[in-house]
Design goal:
Pfam families: IKBKB_SDD (PF18397), Pkinase (PF00069). With 598 residues, the protein is an alpha+beta fold. The chain has helices at residues 32-38, 48-51, 59-74, 85-92, 124-137, 155-164, 193-204, 263-270, 278-357, 364-378, 384-406, 416-435, 439-442, 447-548, 553-584; strands at residues 8-12, 17-21, 101-104, 110-113, 149-150, 153-154, 167-173, 181-187, 211-214, 241-245.
């Protein structure tokens, strides 16, 4: 088959693009003559055995297919694309089985390589997989080409299915000071997120506990679930996950490294008037287009990273505000309970003194414990300074977060200047390609392309400086939140403990009062029994007085005085019982410790 890029057409459908092969008239038996007459201009895509008039099989199509795929990835054919057929055959036959490309070095010597040409648009992981696949399909020996059959199917196509069906997650490493790096990892339906984090730790040296991985929504993936939560089906939109380091502020742009120029781009930037062949010129300009497109792509990804970081900050701040409000509410309620406790304690102390002064039972230990509890409760005020400090720090942090959320950078979606540089570089490259080799007569130098590249660099530096400054402020706020949140949680625990202690003291005093009341009631029963006995004695005394006369008057006075004292004591007990009944009829549920919302 005459398999080459010109014979592949694209047909858009509703939800995908269909690739079709055309011009299949060459799919026929070939002899030595037909090779030269039928494939003029397409020899670079033919398998080596066709040049030597050897017998061939379907593996000749494997070679052509591999050549086209290599060109799709890198933009050039794999083996000496500018060499004449005879020289090409003489040189390329020297390649080892694992070599997938050949080129001339600066001295004109032929060099072979087992890796893809740079730059290209594949991530590192896919590059490694495609390099392995190309080693299968670009073998010089037709018998070993394709690596044989597996289940009656060429192994190279089984492996290609594996590559095309592979799920990849891409993680933009924003944490390091090096150039913006995308970490790519293949996953399956069984790959756990913790496994991905282990690979990240190995590659970046960021411990798992310090990894702050964010989805575009600002949410963090669950480390105990499968890694597909970080994957989305391929589409027009760039799907990247973002890696930050917990508790670390993003370094300013001046300390960061950027993607360097490729050697060819560096040459034309240094010497815009350098004379190159048309092919070398096309390569240099193509790499300039790639450079501009990468700067734009990095900027877009960085915008997404700051947006995800801002959303994460707002998520964390929402929970932080709830904790802070709980602290303030707990403190205000504790103050109210403390004031009520002090008032009720003073009330109980006054009535206890009155009770004792009227002959009631006295307990010095109990009374001293009441006084001590009052002093202990006053120590609650020592918490006020810490609560106020945390409240002030939280309020200042809320102001910073609101300012960041209102910043123009939180709403930025694109950079028109960088987009213009990328578009202009593509236009210049297309003009060069369309003009063909005659362009050398019209294009004397590289000044136009160099101007675009330099403008792209200047725009990138200015834009990234502002963007990294904004991102640094977001990370700084997240760092402050992570430091304040544990303090507020600890303060809430302390307030809960104090509240529980206050309730315990209140219950203890109530228990003391009830015991005192019980003791008084028992004594009152005894006294009433004594009173009845005394009344009977009085009747007998009256009878004796009527018999004995005036000599018993003094005795009756003593009996009357005893009756009066007994009556007063009974009144005091009744008064205490009435007050206690009123006290315990009140709703004391507010003294129970308030449960924090989970």
């Amino acid at each position: 088959r005459d398999l080459k890029p010109e014979n592949i057409v694209l047909q858009p459908s509703e939800d995908r693009i269909i690739y079709k092969l055309i011009d299949l008239g060459y799919a026929k038996e070939l002899d030595q003559g037909s090779v030269c007459t039928s494939f003029v201009g397409t020899l670079q895509y033919l398998a080596p055995e066709l040049f030597a008039s050897q017998k061939y099989t379907c593996t000749v199509d494997y070679w052509s297919f591999g050549t086209v795929v290599f060109e799709c990835i890198t933009g050039v054919r794999p083996f000496l694309p500018q060499s004449p057929p005879v020289q090409w055959h003489r040189e390329v036959c020297k390649k080892s089985p694992d070599d997938i490309c050949a080129y001339h070095d600066s001295n004109g010597e032929v060099r072979f390589s087992k890796t893809l040409f740079q730059p290209n648009y594949l991530c590192r992981t896919l590059q490694a997989y495609f390099e392995k696949w190309l080693r299968m399909i670009l073998r010089w020996d037709p018998k070993s080409r394709g690596h044989g059959l597996v289940d009656n199917r060429p192994k190279c196509f089984t492996f290609l299915d594996t590559i095309l069906n592979m799920k990849m997650i891409h993680i933009l490493n924003v944490a390091t000071n090096s150039e913006l790096q995308v970490l790519s990892y293949p996953i399956t339906e069984q790959t756990l997120m913790i496994e991905i984090q282990q690979m990240i730790e190995k590659e970046t040296r960021i411990p798992i506990v310090e990894q702050d991985i964010l989805l575009a929504s600002g949410a963090s993936p669950d480390p105990n679930k499968i890694a597909t939560q970080c994957w989305n089906s391929p589409g027009d939109e760039d799907w990247v996950v973002f890696l930050f380091k917990k508790g670390e502020v993003i370094e300013p742009v001046s300390k960061r490294l950027y993607k360097p120029f490729s050697p060819r781009v560096q040459d034309i930037v240094k010497e815009p008037t350098i004379i190159l062949t048309y092919q070398e010129m096309k390569k240099a300009w193509g790499e300039a287009v790639y450079y501009c497109s990468q700067q734009l792509l990095d900027y877009k990804r960085l915008i997404l990273s700051q947006r995800a970081s801002m959303l994460s900050l707002l998520r964390t701040n929402s929970e932080f505000v709830k904790l802070k409000n709980i602290m303030i509410n707990e403190w205000e309620q504790l103050l109210s309970k403390k004031n009520y406790f002090k008032e009720s304690l003073a009330f109980d102390i006054d009535h206890y003194k009155y009770y004792v002064s009227n002959g009631g039972h006295q307990s010095s230990d109990m009374f001293q414990s009441w006084l001590q509890s009052g002093e202990d409760i006053d120590n609650i005020l020592s918490l006020k300074e810490k609560v106020d400090r945390l409240d002030q720090q939280a309020a200042a942090l809320q102001t910073k977060i609101m300012e960041l959320n209102k910043s123009p950078f939180s709403k930025i979606t694109k950079n028109e200047k960088l987009e213009e540089c990328e578009r202009k570089s593509r236009e210049l490259y297309q003009e060069l390609r369309q003009a063909g080799k005659v362009a050398k007569e019209n294009v004397k130098d590289h000044k136009q392309m160099v101007q675009v590249v330099v403008k792209c660099v200047i725009t990138r530096d200015s834009s990234l400086h502002d963007l990294f400054t904004h991102l640094s402020k977001i990370c700084s706020c997240k760092c402050e939140l992570s430091q304040l949140e544990p303090e507020i949680k600890q303060q809430n625990r302390e307030l809960a403990e104090v509240n529980q202690n206050l309730l315990s003291i209140q219950k203890q005093r109530q228990d003391n009062i009830w015991k005192l009341l019980n003791f008084t009631l028992k004594n009152n029963v005894i006294n009433r029994q004594d009173s009845k006995s005394s009344s009977s004695s009085n009747e007998q005394a009256s009878m004796l007085m009527s018999i004995c006369g005036e000599s018993s008057i003094e005795t009756s006075k003593v009996v009357a005085s005893s009756k009066d004292l007994n009556k007063k004591l009974g009144d005091i007990v009744d008064h205490v019982i009435l007050e206690q009944e009123e006290l315990f009829s009140m709703d004391w549920n507010f003294l129970s410790p308030k449960q924090e919302n989970s």
